[in-house]
Specification:
dihydroneopterin aldolase activity, elongated, 4 helices, folate biosynthesis
Length: about 120
C-alpha cells in the first residue's frame, strides 16, 4: 500500500450556507489523500497502473463548480466521485477549507476532514 496526496489545491467557488456566500463566492482549499496499492506502478513505471493526478484534480475541480451549502456535503461528493472512478483505491481522505468564513470575527479558515474506506470484499 502507498499514499498519493494532492495538497494545497485552491479554487474560487460559490459554496456556503448563506445565500450571499453563494452569490459572492470565496476561496476554498482542498487536500486529498488516497491509499492504494502502488506496487505495480512502482515496478512498471506506467501511468495506467496508478491513480492519475490530473484525473483526481479534475474530479475535485468539477465538484467545486457545483454549489453546496455545507463543506461536509462537498467533501462527501468528492469522496463519492473518487471511489466510483477508481475501484482499486482503498481509502480516501479529503480536507475542504473555506478561507475567511463569515463568522463575525477573525478566522483564517474553517475546515472539515472526511475519510471513507472501501468496504472489504466478502469471501
Amino acid at each position: 500500500m502507498g499514499q498519493i496526496a494532492l495538497e494545497g489545491m485552491e479554487f474560487f467557488a460559490f459554496h456556503g450556507y448563506y445565500d450571499e456566500e453563494q452569490k459572492i463566492g470565496n476561496k476554498y482549499g482542498v487536500d486529498l489523500y488516497i491509499r492504494t496499492n502502488l506496487h505495480a506502478a512502482g515496478t512498471s513505471d506506467k501511468l495506467d497502473e496508478t491513480v492519475n493526478y490530473e484525473v483526481l484534480y479534475r474530479l475535485v475541480a468539477e465538484e467545486m463548480l457545483a454549489p453546496a451549502r455545507l463543506l461536509e456535503h462537498l467533501g462527501h461528493r468528492i469522496l463519492d466521485r473518487i471511489l466510483a472512478r477508481f475501484p482499486h483505491v482503498q481509502t480516501v481522505k479529503v480536507c475542504v477549507s473555506k478561507f475567511n468564513p463569515p463568522l463575525g470575527g477573525i478566522c483564517h479558515r474553517a475546515r472539515v476532514t472526511l475519510t471513507r474506506k472501501r468496504p472489504a470484499l466478502q469471501p
